[in-house]
Amino acid sequence: MDNFEHCAALVREADRDRYLAALFAAAEHRAALLSLYAFNVEISRVRELAREPLPGEIRLQWWREALAGGREGEAVAHPVAAALRATLAHYGLAADRLIGLIDAHVFDLYDEPMATVTDLEIYGIKTQSALLGMAADILGGGGAAAELLILDAGIAITIAGVLQGLGRHAARRQLFLPLDLLNRHRAERNEVFAGQASDALCGVLGDLRMRARKHLAAAQDKLESVAPEILPALLPAALVGPSLERMERPDYKPLDAQPIAPWRRQWLLWRAARNPSRIFAA
């Protein structure tokens, strides 16, 4: 198995949504996209693998150095790092946004709460928007309109992920819900950690859903201005609206949220690929 095949297998197993989305891209770009997505898998799961902040910090620093051109021998031997470095070289892409993504994920290693909604949106821009932007660049880029759309799309994906992962985060006493929203709704952190879905907490979650929809709508307004070649990079956003809709059902349990079934996720991605106006449908 070569480096790019390893990346494809990793993404197919760990991030099937993006794996399926990549299949809608032009064939000559798929391996590059999957190397990017495999890198995201590696960074996103550092906390789970390292379990303690210091080993996590060391791992993230290794990735910074590998993308900056250091760790030559080790990077060549690491299939994801080698494939990603080859992708960056082939497309003439700088690693700056990916290093920024690494820096943002340092937050994941600690149990400090997200302070404000603005902090959460910046986190989304540095992680999900950066990933969308790099994928779009691999597919040909999209200019200023695409960059603005990608900012909103990344924030919407981030908020949906925070809402979906609330129970998992609470179990490890990690809080992505912004403190300013908790304070505004008079929701207590300890209630979240105790698995209590109070009315106050539901108010916080409703506020975040509204914000996610606002960003989806802003992205939708710009959709006609972007090149169709980059649309496969945006397909993961097609799952945000349906996820938010599920969260508003009467039987929704915010601390035990069940994800959309795999077959339906695949159908939603296929439907959005066939009709891009559905990518940001709220």
Describe the structure.
This protein is mainly alpha-helical. The protein has two domains: 1-110, no CATH class; 111-282, Farnesyl Diphosphate Synthase. The protein is built from 17 helices and no strands. The chain has helices spanning 3-14, 16-22, 27-44, 46-50, 53-67, 72-77, 79-91, 96-104, 117-138, 143-164, 166-171, 179-185, 189-193, 199-222, 231-234, 240-246, 262-274. Helix 1 (3-14) crosses helix 3, helix 1 (3-14) crosses helix 7 and helix 12 (179-185) packs across helix 14.
Write the layout of secondary structure elements.
Layout: H1 3-14, H2 16-22, H3 27-44, H4 46-50, H5 53-67, H6 72-77, H7 79-91, H8 96-104, H9 117-138, H10 143-164, H11 166-171, H12 179-185, H13 189-193, H14 199-222, H15 231-234, H16 240-246, H17 262-274
Helix pairs in contact: 1-2, 1-3, 1-7, 3-7, 3-9, 5-8, 8-9, 9-10, 10-14, 12-14
Search tags:
282 residues, 69% helix, Farnesyl Diphosphate Synthase, mainly alpha, 2 domains, single chain, 17 helices, 0% strand
Compact overview of the structure:
By secondary structure, this protein is mostly helical. The protein is 69% helix and 0% strand.
H and E string = HHHHHHHHHHHHHHHHH
Q: Which runs of at least 5 residues are low in confidence (pLDDT < 50)?
A: none
Q: Tell me which CATH architecture of the largest domain applies here.
A: Orthogonal Bundle
Helix content: 55-70%
Looking at the structure, the CATH topology of the largest domain is Farnesyl Diphosphate Synthase
Q: How far is it from the N-terminal to the C-terminal residue, by CA?
A: 40 Å
Count of individual helical segments: 17
**CATH homologous superfamily descriptor of the largest domain:** Farnesyl Diphosphate Synthase
- Work out the radius of gyration: 18 Å
Mind summarizing the main beta sheet? none
Number of strands: 0
Percentage of β-strand residues: under 5%
